[in-house]
Each structure stands twice: as C-alpha cells, then as structure tokens.
Amino acid sequence: MTIKLNKKELLSNILGYPRIGKDRELKRALEAYWAGRTTREEIAATARQLRQENWTLMREAGIDLIPSNDFSYYDTVLDQALAVGAIPARYHALRDDKLNLYFAMAHGYQKDGEDVIAMEMTKWFDTNYHYIVPEFTRDQTFSYFDTKAVDEFNEAKALGIITKPVLIGPVSFLLLGKEKEEGFHRLDLLDRLLPVYARQLAELQKAGTQWVQIDEPFLVTDLDNRAREAFRRAYDYLAANSHPRLILTTYFGALGDNEDLALSLPVDAIHIDLVRGPEQINILKKFPKDKILSLGLIDGRNIWKNDLESSHQLAHQAICQLGYEHVFVATSCSLLHVPYDLEQEDDEQVLPQSIKRFLAFAKQKVEEVELLKGISKGIETDACLKAFVANKRDIAARQKSEEIHDLKVKERLQQIKAEDYNRHSDYAHRSKLQHDRLHLPLFPTTTIGSFPQTKEVRSWRAAYRKGKISKAEYIRLLQEETKRCVKWQEEAGIDVLVHGEFERNDMVEYFGEKLKGFTFTRKGWVQSYGSRCVKPPIIYGDVSRPKAMTVEWSRYAQSLTKRPMKGMLTGPVTILEWSFVRNDQPLSETCRQIALAIRDEVVDLERASIGVIQIDEPAIREGLPLRHAEWDGYLQWAVDCFRLTASGVKDETQIHTHMCYSEFNDIIEQIARMDADVITIECSRSQMELLDVFRQFRYPNEIGPGVYDIHSARVPSVGEMVALLRKAATLIPKERLWVNPDCGLKTRAWPETKAALTNMVAAAKTLRS
Ligand code: GLN
Ligand code: ZN
Fold first, then answer.
1. Domains of the chain by range and CATH?
2. Of 391, 405, 621, 672, which has the fewest CB atoms closer than 10 Å, so is most exposed?
3. Which pLDDT score, from 0 to 100, does residue 380 have?
C-alpha cells in the first residue's frame, strides 16, 4: 500500500465557537433589545462583529475548517427549526416578521392583547446548555423558510473566509423534538423533512460551500431500529442529491454499537469524539479508505490544557493508517461549552498563575488544534517546537503539583470504611427518635432554603466585594435580614425554619469558595440558555474543608427561634456537576472527596445543635450518562457519595434532601437508596401525578411534594393547595407527608412569597383538622 505523503493536506477542524462574546456583548445587546432600549439593527451589528471576530481569530490561527452558522441569537436548534419551517401554529400570525417570530418561539410573546407561550427548553445532552425543543404535529409540513446558514456563509466569504457551515442533521433534529399530538412518531416525518435539507444543502453549495458539518450526536446514544433505519434513509437520500461534502459529526460519547451504521453512511468524513470515547481509535481497523476521519482530540467540554504528546500519538496512528489527506485534527465537540479566552483572567487573586498554566479556554484550544496539526506534520517551525516543549512541561508539572495533590486527602479516601456509608439505624428506628425530638405536627411545613435575594441583599454583597463596606458591616446587614426572615417564618406558623441563604451568591460557588481544591474565573462565562450564562467553579485539586462553612450562620439563625432551624448544604454530586472538573482522576473519586468535606460540615452542624440538615442534590439526574448501560455504575457512586455525606450523624438528626424535578420513574430505587429521612421534590406542575412512582414503589421515607410552583409570581389559593395535598395523601401515607414549595424562593419577591407561604400554612392546617 502506498500512502500519499502530502502533509499539506492534514486539515484542522473546529466544530463550533462560543458566541455570547468575550465580555458577554451579545447578552447585553439582546437584553437591551428585549427591554426596548435598542434597535434590531444594533443587535445585528453586535452579532456581525462577534462572528467576524471569531472567524478572524480562527483564520489567523491557521484553522482550515472554520465553522459558520454556529452563531445564534438564542439557540441553533431553534435556528434549524426556523430554517426548515417547523413553526408551531400559535406563532403563525408572526410569520411576517422573522425576528419577532424567532424571539416569540424562544421566550414567548406578550403584546397588544396577544399572549403566546414560549416553546419548551431542555438540556442539550449531558451539558448545561439548553436548547429549544422543536414541536411536531401529525400533519407537520416543512419548507425552506430561513436562509441564515447561507447568509452567514456569504458574510464570511465577503471577508475572504470560506467557512464550513454547521447544521444539525435531520435525524437528530427530529429526535430532539417532541410530538405535540398522538398517533405518530416524529421520525415518520423524515420523508417530508429531507427535501428541505436537500434544498438547504443545495443552496449552500451554490453559495460556494465546500464542506458542511452535519451534527448527529444521537449516534452516540442507544438507538432503536426505527432510528437506525432513519439514519440510512436520510443519508441515502441526501447522497442522491448534489450537495457540498458532508462531515457526519458525533460527540459527547462513543459510537459504540452504532459504529457500523455510522461507517456505512454515504458521507465524505466522519468526526468522532476521542475525549469522551478514546477507545474509538480502534475504528481505524475498519475505517473505509474513501472517507476522512476527523479526530476530536481537543476537549470542548472542559478547560484543561491538552496533553499534546498523547494526542499526537493518536493522530500519528491515524495518519499512518489513512494518510494525511484522510485525517482532520479537531476539537472533540463545539467549543461552546468552554469560556472564551484564558488571557482575560489577569487577576492572580481569582485565578492564580500556578493553576492557570494548566488551563486552556476556547482561544487556547484553537491554538492547540493548530499546534497538534503542526506536530503531526513533523514540527516544521521553531515556534511549534517551543510550544510543544512548554506543553510537555506543563502537563508533567500538573501531575506533580503539590497544590493539586494532597496526600492527606488521598489517605483519608483510602480509609473510608463500609459503615461510613450507612446511618446507624434504619429509617423506621430513626424516624421515631426524630419525631420524639422535633415534635412536629402532621403535615409539617417547611421551605427549600433560600428566601428572596432582593436588590438590597445583592447590593450589599457587591459593596462588600468592592471594598465599599467592611466585612463587619456586611455581616451585620445579613444578620438583620436573616432575623427578619426568621421572625416572619415564625409568625407565619412554619414548622421547620430556614435562615434564608442571604449570605450565598450561588449554591455551588458559595461552597467552592470555602473549599480547598477549587478556583474561579473573572470572565469564564459559558452560555446556559438564550442570553443566560453561568461561571462554573474549577475543581483543580484534591478537595478538603479548611474550616466550617455554614455553622456560624445556622447557629445564629437557631439562636433566634425555638423552632427547629434547618441547616442547608449543597450535596457532592451537585457541586461536581455544576463545576469544571478534574480530568486526571475518575469523577467518582473527586466526588468522594467533596462528600467527605461536606460530611464534616454535616457533623459540625449537628454538634452546633442543628437537628435538621438538608443536603441539596438537584443535579443527580443531570449526571445520568447518555448510554443506559452506564446508568448503574454512575448511580452507584453518586448515591454512595450522598450516603457518605449524610451518614456521620446520630439517628435523631433528620437529614433532608431536595431535587428540583420529580421524574423518578427510572431511578426510584436509587433515590430510595439515598435513604434521606425526608426528600422534597417538584410536583405541583404535574398536579402530583409524578408522585405515583413513589406510591407504586412504596417509597419508605418521608416526602415533601412541592405544593406550588416558585417559578412564577402567581400566588396559589389555599383551596388549590388543599386539593393537591388531598391528592398527595391518597398516594403517600399522611404520616410521611411534608408541605413545602417546589424549590428555593431566591428569585421571588417578598410580597408574593409571604402571600403564598401564608396560604400554604393555612392549607396544611386545613388538612390537619
Ligand atoms: N437550597 C437551595 C435554595 O433554596 C436549593 C436550590 C435548588 O435546588 N436549585 O435555593
Ligand atoms: Zn430546587
């Protein structure tokens, strides 16, 4: 076999770039526009500017396949819904004005007597990005409605840059959506959808596109025969029509049992995620000689510097097997999930250089892809050699860094014993002791933790951070707010009180700032949905708790009342899920370290006479792996970590947990295995229907099904909540029912909070009598 050794043909490929702007320019432009403060021309100008910056940056770095149409005002799934004319009927009156239509679909429309609700939004696979869920009806039709992909290609072309448009593939597009009526499956719509995709691709070709990235992330999930068949039909159809060359793009996992299917599809290139599925390099053994393999080696989901030597070995293997012209070096997925630019982090207090040297954000990752290309071609420049050597030095230093590796933490992990995962006695025994201690009435009332974070509370924190008020003054202000909150709860007649969480900015950041092993960024924003961004903490090292984190606040709050004051902690799985995590040890190990740190806090709270302690785990479900076969393994360690956190206390200490959803059908056994004395969940929006699984399973411990939805300012009536509680009492024995809202009240204002909780207490009293 002869391999063409034309090194020039090794191309670099970026799957997508962040788009919110390095200073969140798009967020500001959008929010100003929605508030009526700017014009549509202004957001268009900001958007054009951001796209141009991204393209130019990648071109200057030397990237060959530069993405376009990865930009979006809100969400790229919504963009594609518009492109193929999948516009639900309730928006049809707005069709003449595309921008109005688009934002109405994204977040609803309320104007001139019209009131149209938004489309649903949900998590994008296992990321913290949320997409708009396409809606389909039985007689759904599609049409080529919006030319955004072509427009953006032309926009870049006018700048002299030939881009690679990114589209969500037809099968994934349908699978991401939802049937809005019965009697059909959304994949039944494929034949109607394909001509519109063919048209869109033909238009792109006409505009001069050479490559199109067609994303089919569902290829890394469990597929049934209908879905597999849909993939075959879709790509056969597209192949029969003329179009630019397609890169069938998969990410967030390995192809696994869909590998043969993917390899059989008539496309020109296939992209695989070698960060999430490194074993996929074995695809080389059967990779067709007429296709190009795009190697997803630079992690688009995490912020660590790439180990270029290891990546190079994989790339080298692929090149030897397939030849330069049949390989791309690439990011594992879009860089949407990492912040813009590490160089913006210039505050040593926030992110010390000693940790910064191990990190890479989007801009640095683009450079890494180019560097990998350079190394793979045989290091042709001095700059490349230097950068490679520096990378090797940093990778080696990270393995030895004393800031990262803490022997004491590692030893403590080794010494965990089986009994550390168990409470002393079973729930039946504990519950007697707890009831004797707490003397709670039937249907006890409580809240989930936070009370309104008003403008004032936030202004105190800002003033304190800027050094405008002293620490003592800040604490005094918070104490007064806490006192008012506790007094109000007493007056309202709530049974188990909370301190209100006024001292917390965010339920993960607050703990991250107090734990060793965490660091932060100033501008490390990542898009969560629409204009909303989050700034996740970075877990860089072994985690430990230098000192108590919440005890002072709980002790103070308890001193204000004779009623039980609930201690409030964030659980280890949630802290893990909502942070950038280490990639140099298994997640389960990092999680266990956090669990031990929070366990110490639980024990300290007990010592400070706090008799009820809540450990929030809203993110347990989010962590479920994409493949069903991996669920058990994940749930095993996730639930173990919760148990480790909760089991350091005596039987008479009551442990609560909280989750913001209540789809427990498929994980109820593991939820029960958490063995919290009380679990509070979301339930009001489904009218308690979601409780049924707890009934069927005969869930043994206590439950607080949320009786009202805190996501709106609406105040539910006593009667409404009584009805919900009556329904709940038919499903769960009344001795085990609690009465509480859905979730924390931090985003609400005081007037509606007081009104709703007053009604809630009245509802509980009605049921008692
Ligand atoms: N204790 C937290 C609060 O009340 C829980 C928030 C959550 O579950 N997301 O805000
Ligand atoms: Zn919640």
1. 7-400 (3.20.20.210), 407-453+493-768 (3.20.20.210)
2. 405
3. 85
